[in-house]
Amino acid sequence: MSQPLKPRPDAFPPVPENNDVKAIQMATTIAEMADWDRYPTYSTYVAMMNRWVEQYPSICRLDTIGTSVNGRLILCMVIKGESAMDNNPEFFYSSTMHGDEVTGYVMMLHLIDTLLSGYGSNQQYTDLIDSVDIYINPLSNPDGTYFRGDNTVSGSIRYNANFVDLNRNYPDPFGTAPLDPEQPENTAMIAYFTNHHFLLSANLHGGSEVMNYPWDSFTSSQRPHPNREWWMEVCKRFVDTCRMYSRSCFRDVNSEGYIAGGDWYVISNGRQDYVNYYHNCLEMTMEVSSVKTLSSDKLPSYWRFLQNSFVNYIKEILSITPDDPVAIHDVYAQTMGNDCNLALYPNPAGDRVFLRESMPMESVLYNAYGAEVLRLPAHQKVLDISSLPTGLYILRCGINSTKFIKR
Q: Does the residue 151 lie in any domain?
């Protein structure tokens, strides 16, 4: 008889960890982060992000995705090589939308430093940065992480300052409305995804060690993700690489170290399903530490077994193109078993989109909120969208539908 799975940390009312009894050391200066065995204060975090831009101005810039409820910055480091092409694929890492799951926060800072300092001296990192535009958001819920003030992560909480779980607050592609109004952290993140064309991304959590791939909204026996086999191969490569450095890692949920989200526990209004469906982006959830807030002295050991897997996961994007079967194009129709005859190009689009075949009846264009914005008469193949704002749109003709992004 199989053993029950470890409870999913974002599926139950959380039990706060007692961080006060842990060895949590804070870095009040950039110099104190040199050994990566501390958590930065909020001001140190902001200073680190700005210092990298000063040190490596030719290969990075700092974006502000938005601000939190309490006005803290939601920052993203953009890393783009000196030999990068204009059409490089865009990759996105994001961490700590649950404010007390802070291992990924420091891991992403360490990754930024490793990639930037290795450019020009480490051929692997140089080639990767020249080939992929890398976006890294180390901290997406700063109010939860610094709940007790800017100088400590001790006492951090899962929620944002409005006590809303940000991973239950995204539009759900499968029909469930969030319980709370959309939070500013998520509004900003949604806009950031809309303004980019990320092909591959990951959202880092803590509380378990497992790779969690979509869907979260269904079990795989109910509705498997169209790219389930691909996801399993990607996850296996990530976990196998980690286990080269620590054989005990990624074993607290199952022996494989990866699982479909809904097979672990079905949730609604999560970011993973939202991003996969609405933004034509392959995103998964990485649970990277069984303890949400590690004792700071353990951070270097986690970096040692995760480092190469983090880099290799970015490389996975090089096997994907926007027209590759692995990429998500009308993944909702695939999941629900619909026969979608609508096909359009280009996607993302500029001022016009073109149907590959004319439709025998009128087609209706809706924005991401379900409001009708345009109509395309029957038998026409060109849709003028020059007057519309950037964002996600859904074109429907009868029972068929497809999505595209206007840039």
A: yes
Q: What is the pLDDT at residue 368?
A: 65
Query: Checking phi first, is residue 183 left (phi over 0); if not, alpha (psi -120 to 50) or beta?
Result: beta
Q: Tell whether 311 and 386 lie within a shared domain.
A: no
Phi, psi of 175 (to 5 degrees): 110, -5
The Cα–Cα gap between 45 and 55 comes to 15
Percent of the chain with pLDDT over 70: 89
Look up the CATH number of the domain holding residue 188.
3.40.630.10
Q: Which phi-psi region, left, alpha or beta, contains residue 389 (left: φ > 0; alpha: ψ -120 to 50)?
A: beta
Same domain, 230 and 375: no
Residue 10's pLDDT is: 73
203 in the same domain as 300: yes
Amino acid at 360: P
Residues 6+ apart with CB under 8 A from 73: 46, 64, 67, 142
182 exposure class (CB count in 10 Å sphere: 0-12, 13-18, 19+) = middle
Is the pLDDT assigned to residue 169 strictly greater than 50? yes
What's the rounded Cα separation, in Å, for the pair 283 and 317? Answer: 11
At residue 222, does pLDDT exceed 60?
A: yes
Q: Same structural domain for residues 314 and 388? A: no
Q: What is the dihedral of CA 302, 305, 307, 311, to 10 degrees?
A: -140
> How do residues 56-65 score in pLDDT, each as one tens digit?
999 999 999 9
| 14 domain residue, yes or no | no
